[in-house]
């Protein structure tokens, strides 16, 4: 992993915050100033906070615990998919289903249904069905794959969440 520097954060635009009318007063210590009605974030404080965050993620990964990557925005969806697959972690990059964490028992039954349908498709059970029935089941597989395909290997509640946009997600 490359070292994160002040210059690198500045070049990536990490110092741009929200418009001044959308600010939260609790963020005051982290705001460096205002330019063109946009808050400028203090990158020195950001740099100081990145180290503990990286250490936390490393400690979870070393214990082989699960980190659930969540990012459903169009811009973040593809990156979440690639990075979660790269490190072998579960992800949600389409739509967050209500109760995905608080009602995991129900979500787990949907995961089992998806695995069951995939197994039937692979062993040739679908070839015995009519075209209409096969298409209906294929649509169900596609729907389940889109909504919960990233969490099929999760096997329980995650130990940590990595959320791209906390307000939207």
From TrEMBL:
GO terms for molecular function: structural constituent of ribosome. It comes from marine metagenome. InterPro entries: Ribosomal_uS2 (IPR001865), Ribosomal_uS2_bac/mit/plastid (IPR005706), Ribosomal_uS2_flav_dom_sf (IPR023591). GO terms for biological process: translation. Belongs to the universal ribosomal protein uS2 family. PANTHER family: 30S RIBOSOMAL PROTEIN S2 PROKARYOTIC AND ORGANELLAR, SMALL RIBOSOMAL SUBUNIT PROTEIN US2M. SUPFAM superfamilies: Ribosomal protein S2. This is 30S ribosomal protein S2. Keywords: Ribonucleoprotein, Ribosomal protein.
């Amino acid at each position: 992993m490359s070292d994160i520097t002040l210059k690198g954060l500045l070049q990536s635009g990490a110092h741009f915050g929200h418009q001044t009318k959308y600010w939260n007063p609790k963020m005051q210590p982290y705001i460096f100033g205002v330019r063109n009605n946009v808050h400028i974030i203090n990158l020195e404080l950001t740099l100081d906070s990145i180290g503990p965050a990286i250490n936390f993620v490393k400690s979870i990964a070393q214990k082989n615990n699960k980190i659930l990557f969540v990012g459903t925005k169009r811009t973040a969806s593809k990156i979440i998919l690639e990075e979660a697959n790269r490190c072998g972690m579960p992800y949600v990059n389409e739509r967050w289903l209500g109760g995905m964490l608080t009602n995991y028992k129900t979500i787990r039954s949907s995961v089992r249904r998806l695995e069951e349908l995939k197994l039937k498709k692979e062993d040739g059970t679908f070839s015995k069905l009519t075209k209409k029935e096969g298409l209906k089941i294929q649509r169900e597989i596609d729907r389940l794959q889109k909504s919960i395909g990233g969490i099929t290997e999760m096997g329980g509640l995650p130990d940590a969440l990595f959320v791209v946009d906390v307000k939207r997600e």
